[in-house]
Amino acid sequence: MSVETTLADVRQRAMAGLSEASSLGEILEWERLYLGPKGELTVFLRSLGALSPEERPIAGKAGNALKVELTALFEARRQALATADLDQRLEADRVDVSLPGRAQTIGAAHPVSQMIDDLSDIFALMGFQTVFGPEVETGRYNFDLLNIPSDHPARDVWDTMHVDAPGEIVMRTHTSPMQARVMEQTDPPVRVIVPGRVFRYEAQDASHEWMFHQLEGLAIDRNITMADLKGTLTEMARQLFGPKRRIRFRCDFFPFVEPGVDFAVDCAICDGKGCRVCKHTGWLEMGGAGMVHPRVLTGVGYDPAVYSGFAFGLGIERLTMMRTGVDDIRAFAAGDVRFLRQFARAA
Ligand code: PHE
User: Fold this and answer.
1) DSSP symbol at 51
2) How far apart are the first and last CA of the chain?
3) Cα separation, 159 vs 204, whole angstroms
4) 40 close to 10: Cβ distance less than 8 angstroms
5) Residue of 192, 211, 253, 254 to test ligand 1 pocket, by largest number of atoms within 8 Å of CB
6) pLDDT digits over 39-73, tens only?
7) Is 214 in the active site?
8) Which residues line ligand 1 (CB under 6 A)?
């Protein structure tokens, strides 16, 4: 075969291969076959030495010309296929880098948690320890040890959610069961507060939720009187709402205290004159309280002839509403961050 025929043959196959190559991989394979170190054209050019001195320059010129031609065609084709390949990959793996990133936000304590923290601080200064108790309770702690026997009409006072389990298992209706639990486990003196969730099967409205938070307080020692109760609650109100606050007691009934009271603080917004927040009464109701009933003390093994004490229970959401001016209790558990964000404060 003459040199011309050989080159014409190589050129023809190379051109055909070039137009068939449809991917970057195929065009690189084509380059290897014709222009690579062991490619046909390279081998041809290296073998020129075997030709006669007359043929050599002609073959060399023709071979090099073909090399230049194929190299240029290869480069153009490679470029085109590389661009197409990139376009395809970009399309398949589309990331819009112009979108703004997602900002990381630092959370903040819920207003109810903030109130619990504040109350814990206030009561710690008065020597009260903060303890927590179970949200699922037995009838014994939720009712019996609090002087509410099964046949006592007072047991109907709370609309209770019962747990479907053997025995009387309830979602605690108040934090008072912890009075008995703490006293059973410690000898007097006792000074604790118990913040936590309580559950009542009630219709919801602006001031009623089926789940809310209470803060229980319990102090037992020798010679504790109603004066200590009043002093403690007054100090709490002053720490929360300012130095002028006063506490009002009115008679009330709870089976586990005697005497029992409900207590209110004079309205900090209007200084007790009457305004929208206190519904023009001058007073804000906070909760129930009283001197721990002798039967409760006996029930946990304390001698009521030696020890006496007071207990109180207040609604934490209600207290938070007084402090923030929020007028619907349902907002606290609704989970709307736009509401909660208004009360965010540095931890
Ligand atoms: N446990 C009572 C309630 O939920 C409040 C209370 C606590 C009353 C302690 C007196 C003493 O209504």
Assistant:
1) S
2) 91
3) 13
4) yes
5) 254
6) 999 999 898 888 888 888 888 899 999 999 999 99
7) yes
8) 174, 176, 254, 257, 287-290, 311-313
